[in-house]
Amino acid sequence: MDTLSALISHAEPKANLFFSGNLCGSSSSTDHPAGGILHLVRTGEMLLFEEYGLTHRITEPTLIIYPKGKAHRLQPQTLDGCDVVCANLTFKDSPLYRALPDAIVLPLNELDNLSDTINMLFIEAFTSRFAQVAIISTLLDLLLLLVLRHLVENRICQEGVLSALSDHKLSKAIEIIHKQIDYPWSIDELANKVGMSRARFAALFNQTIGQPPLSYVTEARLLLAKKLLLKGEPIKSVSLEVGYSGSVAFSRAFQRQFGITPRAWYLKQH
Predict the structure, then answer these.
(1) pLDDT digits (tens, 9 = 90+) for 80-111
(2) Strand order in the sheet with 62-66
(3) Helix (H) or strand (E) holding 65
(4) Tell me, what CATH number does 130's domain have?
(5) Does the pTM exceed 0.85?
(6) What is the count of structural domains for the chain?
(7) 116 CB contacts (<8 Å, ≥6 apart)?
């Protein structure tokens, strides 16, 4: 499994359609499902407002994504309105999710490699055919994955773990960590695995990702633990699966990281 695939498997990104059609009036994020939001503008012109006012004038087909649900408003500028496809997005809390920018606005002419998927999505969204809902759902999920790959390949994310994937050695280190998340990694071992000195590796990792290597390992383990707990796995099993000697050591690390015990956190989610 490549590095981005490993990160995606932890984040479990999912897109669910909540509107497709002609938008003729103002639309606010507060009117839609909570969480991340994706807008795919097919035709028309609109203004995009965020908390402090106008941020973009949309004059061509455009992809707009707020991975973490930033407040915003769409305002069509013509009587004909705008044809749009809108979906809510969900991610598991994970290194990938935390590395995503607050907003992504990309004209579709910059997404040539995604054009087949986008065109098929538009065809399905603006016609009435058998299995339409299931096909749109699948295409939205595929589009989201392709966008994540686009962000990495074009170095759009300038900080966090996604920015590190363009560096071969850091990418390899992240891949190693996620492949063996339960292993008691040391900085020396990771540096040796990628052919770097300890000092150079630690400095580059911290500078690029924004946290020391072992801090990243701990965070990745405990974010994965949250995901496993939500699936109903017992605390003892989760603790071993993410690299702790037992539930006591795991609970202490979890509380240091999140300020709450695993059991109390789990109960708050239900």
Answers:
(1) 999 999 999 999 999 999 999 999 999 999 99
(2) 14-23, 82-90, 36-43, 62-66, 104-107
(3) strand 62-66
(4) 2.60.120.10
(5) yes
(6) 2
(7) none
